[in-house]
What does this fold into?
Amino acid sequence: MSETAPRAVSAPLKVLTVCTHNRTRSVMTAAMLGSLLDRRLGPGSAMVRSSGFGPAGLPAIDDAVDAMKRRGLDVSAHRSTETSQRLVDGADVILTAERDHVVKIAALSPGAFRRAMTLPEFLARASSSELPDGDQTARIWVETLTADRLAAGYLRGDVPEIADPTGSAHRVFEAAVVVMEQQCTDAAAWLASRTV
It folds into this structure.
């Protein structure tokens, strides 16, 4: 999808990115996705936050800070946040790194199961979706993407995930970030096109 000029949005799109400890994958996804949505929708049109399931108050890992710095994004002040029902319920879309994160989110708030997907799962479902009604909000559109998804099948099914690059050699870490960057670019295009 091509980049579009920023446009006014009635209410900010609320995106939550989630990984295990909120120190690597969710931090980088939030930084890249937030920047991309600002460019597509205009500053303040999207609110992108991140969280995890580990201890709160810890910084992003050095490799994540460096990878984002090379992309002109500063996550040095980031401190990990615990995923809560309040955060989950307030999000229009929840993009996770792993299926297990979706399961934990659904345990916090069962209704959020319809808005929570791994980032690669979101892209696969979005690319095979039908065009939504012109009056649909992004939140409603996201829920339609998972309308056929059942909890029991989800636990047994094959769900694409983002592997954790933490502790990898620099070259391997950077290669993982390049993949995530493309996924964020594609996700921003889909979300911007569905935001009213």
